[in-house]
Amino acid sequence: MKHDYFIALEQKNNSQLILHDVIEQLAFNEQGLIPVVTQDANTKSVLMLAWMNKESLQQTLITKRMTYWSRSRQRFWIKGETSGHTQLLVSMAFDCDGDSILCLVEQSGAACHTQRPNCFYLKVDADSNQVIITNNTDPL
Amino acid sequence: MKHDYFIALEQKNNSQLILHDVIEQLAFNEQGLIPVVTQDANTKSVLMLAWMNKESLQQTLITKRMTYWSRSRQRFWIKGETSGHTQLLVSMAFDCDGDSILCLVEQSGAACHTQRPNCFYLKVDADSNQVIITNNTDPL
Question: What is the number of alpha carbons within 13 Å of residue A120 lying toward its C-beta?
């Protein structure tokens, strides 16, 4: 990880950096990917976790349509390209270590391919040592 | 990825599974790790993204104190063990593919090691092609 770069930023409140320079320093993994947390800008619900490579990150910034890298299909994945359930980028932030991205989005329809509002529908009930498969309209 | 297991769950609304069985099917990566999104249960702010292995996941469920695996230090990382900024687990959910975890927590103090409320303080301004280093009290 290019960690020293981000350590040097910690005390620089309100400084401005060139976006391209920061993207070059992000900690893409051995497959060239970085995890992206996608959050609904209105409800604040965490919709999904997916991955981007540098090119899909740049495409997302240019088009404002969330564009991931599909690890299972090994290709670009413009969210909603088949379902119509698109995600419009509202804002993006990188974390302190430069190894993850948070995107707030306007979600059209269901974020999950199962038609549930978000992907985190397998709820742990630690007291009973069970997992409940929810329809995801329940609060977490 | 043990994807077939999770595909088989998609239509089983309100079913209950044995927690141990689901954990055994989670898609831990080659390093035995799975990404964890940690969200403030009160504010709904996404605080950080970190990683767990199977043992730290089990410790988190038993102790209710968020316990990650530190990739930089290669050891268990009980959040707040030195800073006092602990995270009490409120609820946990797995996603549709079994390859990420969402935890809602009660956060004590700052989630970020820089003393900012959360780790996502490097805000992208796509219009100006800049990144702003915020003190993180600003909305995203």
Answer: 27
| Burial profile B19-35: b = 16 or more Cβ within 10 angstroms, e = fewer | beebbebbbbeeeebbb
Res. B2 pLDDT band, cuts 50 70 90:
low
* B122/A97 touch (CB, cutoff 8 Å), yes or no: no
**Residue B78, CA distances (Å) to B56, B66, B91, B107 in order:** 9, 6, 17, 13
Asked if B10 is an interface residue toward chain A (Cβ–Cβ < 8 A), one would say yes
Nearest to A122 among B22, B112, B114 (CB): B22
User: In angstroms, what CA-CA distances link A100 with A1, B44, B65?
Assistant: 12, 18, 22
Q: Quick one: pLDDT band at residue A74, thresholds 50, 70, 90?
A: very high
Residue of A nearest to B42 (CA): A44
Q: State both tokens at B50.
A: 């970190």
Here the ipTM equals 0.95
Measured between beta carbons, which residues in chain A are less than 8 angstroms from residue B16? Answer: 125, 130-133
pTM: 0.95
Looking at residue A1, its pLDDT comes to 47
